[in-house]
Amino acid sequence: MIRRQLKFYCCWLLFINAIGSAWANTNQSFQFKHFKYDDGLLSNTVNAIIQDEDEFMWFGTSEGLCRFDGYGFQNFTHIAGDNNSLNDNFISSIAEDTLRNCIWVVNSLGVSRLDKTTYKFRNYPISDTSKFHFSPFYRGTVCVDHRGNVWVEGFGKEYSEGLFKYIEDEDWFVNLSKQEGSVMQGLTCIYEDSNKKLWFGTDHALFSYNHSTESFHKINFRNPQIDSLHITCLFQGKDDKLWIGTYHDHSIYVLEDDSISLAFKSAYSNDDYNWISSLAIYNDQELFVAIKDLGIQVIDLSSGAKSLLQPDMYKPYGIKSKTPTVIYPDKSGNIWIGSYNNGVNFLDKHKKKFNLYQFNYTDSGLLSNNVRAFFEDSDGELWVGTKEGGGISKFNPEDGTFINYKADRFNPSWLDNDIVICISELEKGKLLVGTYGGGIYLFNKAKETFSKFAMPNDGKNSISNKYVYALYKDEDARIWIGSNSTVDIYDKNTNTFSHLPGVNYARCFMDNGDAILIGTWTKGLYIYEKSKKTIENYRFKHPQLQKDKNVRINGMARDNEGYVWMGTNKGLLRFSGKGEEELLFTQNDGLPNNYICAVQVDDYNNVWASTKIGIIKYNYNKESVRVYNKYDGLQSNVFEEFVSLKTRDGYILFSGLNGFNMFYPDSIKDNTNPPEIHLTDFRILNEKVQIGGDKSPLKKHIDLTDQITLKNAQSSFSFEFVAVNYTSPEKSQYLYMLEGYDKDWQRAGVTKIANYTKVPAGKYSFKVKASNGDGVWSEDVKNIKVKVKPPFSRSIPAFVLYFVLLVMFLAAYRRFVKNSTTQKNRLAEEIKENKRLEDLSRKRIRFFTNISHELRTPLTLIASPLERLVNYNTNDKQLTSLIHIMNRNAQRLMRIVNQLMDFRRIEENRIQLKVVETDIVKYVKDVLANFNDIANNRSLKLNFQTNVPNIRDGLMKVSWIRYCLTFCRMR
């Protein structure tokens, strides 16, 4: 009994060891990226994955549907009271329908259809009273074939619900399994291959479907002893083989020549719970098998070798789940693995092969992320020096493991300083270990022991400083030692140290013919002539380096043409050593940063340099620069000074803040697949525009919209866009322009939004294009026409109104002009008439004046005798009265003649107004006296009555008016 138990335990340990070895080897070669709830995924349980024709990834989770574009998730869930949302969040299967431009979703309550035009759902819920009904699905599968037929497999908790088919005319589903004679019992999966052939897997057999006859055909087994097979999943590779996953025996079968045969027998558990849930082929050579509660089995199709991917807490880039639910290969060959409660594991086919090594707590892991030294000894073994709890480690890149020799500060016979800065080789089998504060140690590889090699103050035959920064073995087997003090040189043949005073802060050394190049942190480059034993502080010939004396050299490497490349704080420097002027390459030449931490040259003469913002690959002959950063798999963007190595096999190592990267330069390939560019959102005044509203300018999703018309008040808007790219999407670059507004393409960098403010009314075309993470630009340009309406003051109705007003104004103006012309003409006529009247008046006055002259002489001759008669005394009173009357009228007539003559003088302004006071009463009496005879002749009696004796009046010039009035009254 005990022997049997021991045998069982031994077998179990061997089994676990085999799994562990396979898992360790495979996890190192497969580096996964992970997406979980914290990254925006609705749930860590992912049951279904697809990629649509726009290259978006869709994930069906236990909490809803997610769309992923490489940057973020757009999530869809059930919203209470909203009939346009999912009817249930637990999703078991999804499929794209390109004919209807929608996504079909199977959930616990039936089927939902997401319209990609409006992003609204149409739900097909459970209805037990309908002939087209679903029972509650525990798990289901949906498949849309090339003809647009929608097939749904419903699987309850204990039994299959059968096969459903969508009926377009009735917009509902019919259960084909309940039709008479149906063979679709125990359905488990549906799959359409690349040859447009439809396959149905059941719990007992595999069926193909004939569209012409609408019939099912059962596939036979090649082995007659097999009469049934519980199929769980199907997958077709590029060789047209149909791979079949099973339930009970966990084996994989293959369909060839219309018959099924066993391909691979499971090497793992036969537990019924460990069934195969999904299959996929990666890189055309490895079959990925999802085994429930066990992990991912990887089968090499050429050799049949099997390995198992399982989670490991010490491997942050390994797979994260033992319970994979689905494996999906996308169009670019990447692998997406959904899991139960551990999110999505993403295997990037185009990921740069920058292998990353970081600290972990296992005995075979890296001692510390703070790596300060690399060295390859004469046996080809790689050594890593670390600090902060570190020591030295022998590194095996084949399996990524380390044999660690950790420092022990309390053991003086061991390495008692845990800050290792540099490593070199004294002789075969013996390493020199330089430390910060502990001098130099000697490590015996065979004995695995440490001993003190050199410390300062050990007499003249010692090093100058216990803080050792550089160790270098030259072609003459001498050891060059750099510190903050002087440079020390150890000669093994004489077992003595010599010194180069004044050469402080030496950090790197290099043989250069008869010279040793010494790079320092304070005074640039020193050149030691070995034959002359002289040292010179080299004066750079480059103008920029002559001006700035503070040149820091962090590393040196020689290319295939003999040039020495130096990493400096001023840029990347090429040094010939032949008296030529140096070449300095800086940010102006395309480098991302002028501070070069370390430098190496690969076998193809490419210069690789680490910086504070990533690693660059520079080709001098092609004048090309490629920049890699943490999104390409680097430990971080920040690297350490002078810590790098190129191995004899051509591998390059660089150290940084979070461990170190090791890579083979020729395996760093650019992703040549350009991304697809899509519009993801549209905003007006920074508010998201909803689709289909009465006042919304969007009637369908912005990515499907060809033209958008905006009111003038909506002239401040923004477009959001994305380059769908899953390899280093954070490095994608964007260019955009609003044609008709922007004069040229606008560089957005990695920003995925274009903002415009107060765009003038007009017609425009918004264009955007993008590159992938490796700078490959898409030839396709996303284009949408934009029309901004003018304000009402510039609209067509306004212009019509303006036209009407203009016509009215012109009519009014015409009328005004006409009236004005008429008035002017009338005025001209009046002026003409007035002139005529004036001429006539002047002629009349001239006539009267002339007549007056003619009348004045005879009148004077009459008046003079009358005056004498007045003064003549006569007793005849009647005669005297008549004489007085004649005299007064003669005088009156004289005044009238004088007044007529005054008109002429008035016109010529030659008369002055003379006011003469007169007694009006007396004057009136005199006037009346002149008319007494006339009155008597007419039997009239003139009376004049007044209440005053006299009235003084100064208007004698108008006395003739009174006279005329009296005369007219008498008539």
TrEMBL record:
Pfam family of the protein (one): Reg_prop
Signal peptide (UniProt feature, chain positions): 1-24
SUPFAM superfamilies, A to Z: Calcium-dependent phosphotriesterase, Homodimeric domain of signal transducing histidine kinase
Gene3D superfamilies: 1.10.287.130, Immunoglobulins, YVTN repeat-like/Quinoprotein amine dehydrogenase
GO molecular function: phosphorelay sensor kinase activity
Highest taxon listed in the record's lineage: Bacteria
Catalysed reaction equations from the record: ATP + protein L-histidine = ADP + protein N-phospho-L-histidine
InterPro entries the record matches: His_kinase_dom, HisK_dim/P_dom, HisK_dim/P_sf, Ig-like_fold, Reg_prop, WD40/YVTN_repeat-like_dom_sf, Y_Y_Y
Membrane-spanning ranges: 796-816
Keywords: Membrane, Phosphoprotein, Signal, Transmembrane, Transmembrane helix
Domain Histidine kinase: 850-945
Leading EC class: transferase
Name of protein: histidine kinase
